[in-house]
Every structure is written in C-alpha cells, then in structure tokens.
Amino acid sequence: MQGAQAFDEMGFDGDTPRDAYHRIKRWLDDAPPEYLQTRRAQAELFFRRIGITFAVYGDAQADERLIPFDIIPRVIARSEWTRLEKGLVQRVKALNAFLADVYGPREILRAGLLPDELVLRNPQYCLAVIGKQPPHGVFTHIAGIDIVRTGPDDFYVLEDNARTPSGVSYMLENREVMLRLLPELFDRHRVAPVDDYPEMLLSTLSSVAPPNCKGEPTIVVLTPGFHNSAYYEHSFLADKLGVELVEGSDLFVRGDMLFMRTTEGPKRVDVVYRRVDDDFIDPLVFNPGSVLGVPGLMSAYAAGNLTIANAPGTGIADDKAVYSYMPEIVRFYTGEEPILANVPTWRCRERDALGHVLDNLKDLVVKEVDGSGGYGMLVGPHATTAQIEDFAAKLKATPEKFIAQPTLALSTCPTLVDEGIAPRHVDLRPFVLTGAKGSRIVPGGLTRVALKPGSLVVNSSQGGGTKDTWVLDD
C-alpha cells in the first residue's frame, strides 16, 4: 500500500471510465467549464444561506467558515456497497459486544486477546459504567466508521467513531443541494436515497427506550450549545427528528428520573441523543466544573430509567490502540473472519514496534490513540525534518499515546477545483444505526475530500471538503 500510485475511482487518466462512472464521465465531457463553476458557486451560496458552518477552535474566522462542497458526486456500485454494508454491520456488532464485555465479564481479557492495561488503564475506560449495561444491551447506537479505498476491491477501516460521530447533516444537505442544482444528472442514474436517515434514526432511538417507558418515548438531543463546532448538526437533527434540542440547563433529575423543563411543567425524558462528551455530561460523576451536563444524569442511567445514545464509556472503542486489535475482536465475538480489514498498525507502546516506527518516521502516519479531527498527527512523507525530530521526541517520551500506520495511497475521485477537474484523495464515513432489532445503514455516507493537491488529510478542520455519495442501484 505504501508508495503505490493512487487508485482512481473513475479512471480519470484513461479513455474508458469504470462502469459506475460511465455516465458521470460523459456528463463531465459535455458540461462547459463555466456551467460547472456556476453550479459550484450556487452550491456555496446555498450552504451559506442555510447557515451550514463549521467552527475551527482557535480560528478567528471560525464563525464564517464553510466546509467546501464539490458538485461531482462520488459513485459506488451496488455490488461494492453490499460488501461494505455487510462488513460494517459485522464490525459494529463486534464493537457493541466488546463494550458490553469490557464493562461486564471481561471475557476477552481473560482469554488474553488484549492486554489488561490497554483497557483497564485506558483514559477512555469509564469506571462509572462498570457493571451497568444499557437498555437492550446497545452501547453505540450511532457509529461512524471511516473507510478508505486503495484499489478496485480493497477497502480498509481507518477509524471507528463510537462516541459522538458527526457529519450526517452534511450527508443529507449534500444530497439536497445536488437534487436542486443538478436534477439532470439524477435523471441519468438510479441513485439510492439517503433522505430516510432521520426516520431510521428516530426509529432506532425509540426502540432502545428504557423498559419502563410508557407509550411513545420522549427523546431529546443534548447539545453543548451554539459555541460548539457541530452545533448546526445538533439543531438540524433535532428539527429533522421532530424532538427538542436541549442544553444541560433545560434538564434536571428527580427520583432517579430525567425531566425536561417545559411551559406545561416537567416532562419525563426517556432517551437522550447526546452530543456532549463523557467528561461533561454529569458533574457529579465526571468533571465537577462542567456546566454543559446534568447533575444526576448518571444516576438515572444507572437506575435503568434512561437511555443515553451513545452510551457513556464508548470512547474505549474509539481508541486507536484498541482499533489495532479489531480483527481479533471481530473473530472473538462473531466467530467470523472480518469482512473489512484494518489498516496495518504498529502499537508504539510495544518496544519492537516503537523501534520500527522511529526508524521509518518519514514514511509513516503517526496518530494519537485518542486523537481526532486530523490533529496531533504526523504525516511523515509531508513533514519537515524538524517536525519529524520533534515527533520522535514525543514518541520516546510517551510511546503508549501513539500508533503508526503506512502512508496509504488513498483512492481519488474527480473533483472540481479552481483550475478545472482534477483527482483528489477521498475517504468515506458511513453511519451505522443500531437499535433493539439490529443495525441499519442508509446507502452511502459522507465522502470527505482532500482539496489540496497531493494531500491525504480530508478532515474539514484541516481544509478538507465533502462530496455527495451515490450508491447506484443499476
């Protein structure tokens, strides 16, 4: 995978495109450049008018930043998606089983498949959750699994996002803007819909309401507030679900039950779709200085009177060192071979692995085990000598905080840039919903694109953009 030429999903440099892109290639050949640039400008105007922004902490222009959107869709054939879907369902099933186990009987630790200290001493291991199983046994109700592609049949899981994965609002809004601006392109394809995601999410959350819930469950979306970088998504989802968007001050606990303040008096809440990290959801259990959460929230959860989605403690499944054991985890809990492979990973906490990483830093990608958003990482081939030396010092000081992976030749898709149409590297984040009756996935997900030539960093916080993702039914 390392040093290889990137796989182009359309066949950008060839005369004959891949089957899934045949009509897209014809459309691009026929469309005048000024037409494409006009549609690109109209898409930006659309997103600006409806207020889709993404704040970048520490950036003075954070309130004004839009995630760039590319109007050329990323296309996935139905046969390709079918394999991805099976692999995603298998992986999330294993993640939920792993979480139930490490907070319960710890059979995987007794079997010696993971080092005890990797789990039990992990900063993301939540002591307050030990012995407390969530309603219906589901820990991660909404999972965002990051997928990269390196060849026609080569898909790899890059990361598991099991805490509060974001980006689904962009998936839905990307489709909306494409339908408005390029209806003629949809007329040429049978594109699988994604607009039923809110209905699927509402059904999923309703299905995991506590057993003592009477009638239709009351569901809320808990946000840290409008200063949060993903606040637009929080309000968007609450609106689409038809539920209340609340902050911690809107809720209180009485008698081990959670209530919401309303103009008609207190109303019991059964399910909280929280977009607040563990550290801040209950100051009586976690960070005592938090004003974002609800005092006593964990007591209501522990009493079985409340479902929190995703459940507290899921951060251990996000840990990138734990990720490196996912093939073993999948086999242990499902009895099956993993359908989707991991990216080869060196655990820097291991002496031999650390030595290899230090000797090859210029060729590797090094990440913090609990990092996200493209921060705190080293992309060796694009780093300066000084950056590599600084990172080597970090690795030697705290090797347990890092993992390393080869520099993948991520696939590319045609992308409209200022100079015209050019290949840019992409990844994919499908969203897996798991409720009382199993997992469901809308066909597609959020494609993120690295807009800088040659860049492999697709994160919006690092200058990446997004694309609409089409799964073709024909």
Automatic annotation (TrEMBL):
Domain Circularly permuted ATP-grasp type: 73-450
UniProt xrefs under Pfam families: CP_ATPgrasp_2
Signal peptide boundaries: none
Source species, domain of life: Bacteria
Name of the protein: Circularly permuted type 2 ATP-grasp protein
